[in-house]
């Protein structure tokens, strides 16, 4: 790996255990995931409010990224979609990150890159993955379930202060304040999800009825009845167009 070099003074993003840097490998621009083996001292998080319109735009961009992955041939399954794995720049543009659990769907067989009985983050995992992950031939619906959990998180942005404040990507948590079933341990989450229990609509959130309907459709116990990523993308695109028209109408009202 002597041909790999890291560029820049600051990382482009990061997760709980690693930073994402721009780099070069054999004269090709690449992203480098560099593991951290220390804890940031006195690390504080800066909070910034985001309007409902901006939040809807953000979840649209996440859906667009997921639709792109699922449209590839062979299909790419992300496998670990959650707020902490979304990179957001200062203009609130979203990018999917952390493909450590990514899998490729070929001829109806999913080949996982990582090993283990339960892969992923339990609070974001679809019920069928708890039954027998290896027997699930198409894991796109599991990505959709996790997407619904990520939308549940949407509320405000928390940024780590040591990242470059320029328009480069920054690590975020996009959340209501808690992930789904945040007060449960992993075992309790599995039991509740398998029983068909889902988190209630947050009373303090920005969710409008149609967005919450989307979340619930992503959480359907029958994986075949969940919307596909393209359907979500198209639905949110229509919603954003409607919001844009409404804002123009409000702006046109004479004072």
TrEMBL record:
The keyword Transferase applies. It comes from Paramarasmius palmivorus. It holds the Pfam family PK_Tyr_Ser-Thr. Residues 1-240 form the Protein kinase domain. Keywords: ATP-binding, Kinase, Nucleotide-binding, Transferase. This is Protein kinase domain-containing protein. GO terms for molecular function: ATP binding; protein serine/threonine kinase activity. It comes from the Eukaryota.
């Amino acid at each position: 790996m002597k041909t790999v070099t890291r560029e820049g003074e600051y990382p482009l993003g990061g997760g709980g255990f690693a930073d994402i840097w721009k780099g070069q490998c054999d004269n090709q621009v690449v992203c480098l995931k560099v593991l951290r083996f220390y804890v940031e001292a006195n690390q504080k998080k800066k909070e910034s409010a985001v309007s409902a319109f901006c939040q809807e735009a953000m979840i649209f961009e996440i859906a667009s990224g997921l639709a792109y992955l699922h449209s590839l041939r062979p299909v790419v399954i992300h496998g670990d979609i959650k707020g902490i794995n979304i990179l957001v720049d200062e203009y609130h543009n979203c990018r999917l990150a952390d493909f450590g659990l990514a899998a490729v769907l070929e001829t109806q067989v999913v080949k996982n890159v990582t090993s283990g009985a339960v892969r992923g983050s339990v609070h974001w995992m679809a019920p069928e993955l708890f039954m027998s992950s290896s027997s699930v031939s198409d894991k796109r619906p599991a990505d959709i379930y996790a997407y619904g959990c990520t939308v549940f998180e949407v509320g405000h942005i928390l940024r780590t202060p040591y990242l470059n404040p320029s328009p480069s990507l920054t690590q975020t948590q996009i959340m209501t304040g808690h992930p789904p079933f945040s007060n449960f341990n992993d075992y309790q989450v599995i039991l509740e999800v398998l029983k068909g229990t889902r988190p209630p609509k947050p009373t303090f959130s920005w969710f409008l009825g149609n967005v919450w309907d989307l979340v619930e459709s992503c959480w359907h116990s029958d994986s075949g009845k969940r919307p596909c990523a393209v359907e979500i993308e198209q639905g949110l695109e229509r919603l954003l167009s409607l919001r844009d028209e409404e804002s123009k109408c409000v702006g046109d009202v004479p004072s």
